[in-house]
Each structure stands twice: as structure tokens, then as C-alpha cells.
Amino acid sequence: MPCIEWRSLRRLTGRWMSSAVAFCAALLAGCATGPASPPAPVSTSKPVPVPVPAPPAAVARAPAPSAAAGAPGPVRLPTPGVVRSASELHLLAARRIAAANPHLTYDDRPPDVLLAIPVLSVDLNGDGSIYHIDVLRYPRQAKDTTQIAIDAVKRAAPFGDVSRLPRPWRFTETFLFNDDRRFKPRTLDDR
User: Fold this and answer.
1) Which of 17, 109, 168, 176 has the fewest Cβ atoms within 10 Å of its own Cβ atom?
2) Tens of pLDDT along 106-159?
3) Radius of gyration over alpha carbons of the chain, in Å?
4) Which helix (H) or strand (E) holds 148?
5) List of domains in the chain
6) Cα–Cα distance measured from residue 152 to residue 37, given in angstroms and rounded to the nearest whole number
7) Mean pLDDT of the chain
């Protein structure tokens, strides 16, 4: 009897075909290998203690910059006023994010090759406080920069009275991180 019925396999199409082929390959790979190790012989003598290896030491990493890592305390920002347009909100938000996080930002031109570029969408309440933060783009490397950006936005809130603007009260910001894990809001890079 054949291991695989090819006629029924031909009837499968599209993504089902690739799933069936992957399943069959895994099944055949499992059939081809022998047992992982020979069975242990049965002994009637006393059990011998087996040394247990110590857990591996934790890998030391450079800590990511944060408010607690030697950075100055929270920055007192002036209370923002009423926001009159969406573009004004976007610019005000970028300036507040940079001002609230001076220990995490840089003012120079961004490097040609950036470490990470997370993109956040921030929904606001009518008073300018944060309602919800959504990550629109996670970086492939340095994934911790996403949380650094989220924390930076939270430190910069509130963003002014936006209740007179049409809904949704939202702005999107792109964070340009350099190799030191310092960022520059993309909105301020254009200015």
C-alpha cells in the first residue's frame, strides 16, 4: 500500500496544497529517523546521583535609556491651549514629545542608516489626554524602541483641548531612532 495517495493530493489547490505537502514532508521526516537515543538498560543496583548542570548565566546587555537610568526627573511642560487644526495638533504633539524627553532625543540630522523606525497612532480624548496608542509599524530590529516611543508619548500628554476639531482626534508620529536609542520625531525633521 502506498504511503501517500497522489490522486487525492492532486485535488488540493492553492494554500491547501502547500499545507498538505508540508504535512507529508514532516510525516516522512518523522518516519525516516530512528529513536532519539537507545533505551537505557534496566538495572537492579542502587541509583547513581546524576549531576545537574547549573543554569546559564544571564547575558549582560546594555540597558535601554529610560527615565530611571540616570536621566533627569520629569520635565514640567506648560499646559497647552486650544488646538485649532489637525496640522497644529501634529506639530504641537511632536514638539511636546521632544520637550518632555530631552534625555531621549537628538537635534541633529538623522543618520543615513537608522536603528529603528516605529510608527505610532495616538487617539486623544477631547481634553487632549491619551485615549489609545496603536502601533502602526514595529521595527524589525531593536524592538524595545517601540516601548521607548510609547512611554515618550505618555510623558508628553496632554496635547491640548481638541474638542473643537472634527473627530477622530488622532495624530500619527514616526520616531527616527539612532544607534544610541535616541529618537527624533519625523515631524520635526521636516522643519
Assistant:
1) 109
2) 999 999 999 999 999 999 999 999 999 999 999 999 999 999 999 999 999 999
3) 28
4) helix 144-156
5) 86-189 (3.30.1150)
6) 53
7) 76
